[in-house]
Amino acid sequence: MSPNLKPRVLLVNDDGPPGAESPYIFGLYQRLTNDLNWDVKVVIPSSQKSWIGKAYHITEVTRGKYFYPRAPDGVEGETTDTPRKLKEDEVAEWILLDGTPATCANVALHNIYPGEIDLVISGPNFGRNTSAAFSLSSGTIGAAMDGALSRTRAIALSYGNVLHPTPVELYDHAYRLSTSIVEYLWSNWGKDAGGTREGEVDLYNVNLPMIHKLAEPGGVQVYWTRMWRNSYSRLFKAVTMVSETKMEIPPEGPDSASGVLPTGDSGSNSTARASRSLAFKFAPDLQHLVTPNMSIIPVGTDGWAFGMGHASITPLRACFAEVERGEVGNIEDGEALSLLKL
After folding, report:
1. Separation of alpha carbons 269 and 266, rounded Å
2. Among 5, 127, 330, 334, who pairs with 255 as Cys (CB 3.0-4.6 Å)?
3. Angle in degrees, CA 121, 100, 150, rounded to 5
4. How far is 311 from 168, CA to CA, in rounded Å?
């Protein structure tokens, strides 16, 4: 499709329908449809699905409902089992699936709207998706990755929480900037000789810091970046009593230093070895990821850009990328095969 034509868009996310844990999707939808006049279909999880990566439900039947969000924020809306005409105060018809973000993307592309989508936009995520530690766990990037693997242009979009709570007056500025970035990428899609789609870049990962500078006349700067290759530590906590297995997203978002809060916790932080318990809840220690020492972050990476208060665009390949340079297991340029002799 020519970049000069308006794309047909699939909007997905991992935070679910509009609400406290998913505050951005309705606003971006309105920007894409009203400002750019793009045709946008929405297929999203029926509930919060953060930190689930590119997983699929393969043993369950994925069921869905039609959702009709109402202005001003999309939080209120009727759900139905069958589609119907819009009522006077309804903005659009969305689809909610009881599945993962990647499931939503795949079902939408191949079952609901086959051959009707030119661009997948996943997000905006409620929290950053910079660096390997966040990106490889992200349902937002997982849905975009599914789009790329389905040979469709894809952009993952995340709004990183810095101020707690994030001032509502920053939302429109974030929508405006991210819409401009998305429009630019669509019209100027990059090349990658190894790309699965006619030598194009598979997907882009875009991150915006939700800071006051967004509202200033010059706004935040936007940098092309590479991914910061970092690591995480403990993601789970041993518990001695389990009354609930549901996790709660803190008001400041799942990428906050407090991480994801488990409910029904006895308060124990004992290790399994000490307690002899084999019960664990997701309670990640994210302090070193959220507030890293800037001196250790390579300049030019997405982590560096976010820490400096910049927006970032990271071109990605839809694969566990091979090592391009190194000493062990490398295939030299021009070699079709490289045999390991033991």
Report:
1. 9
2. 127
3. 50
4. 19
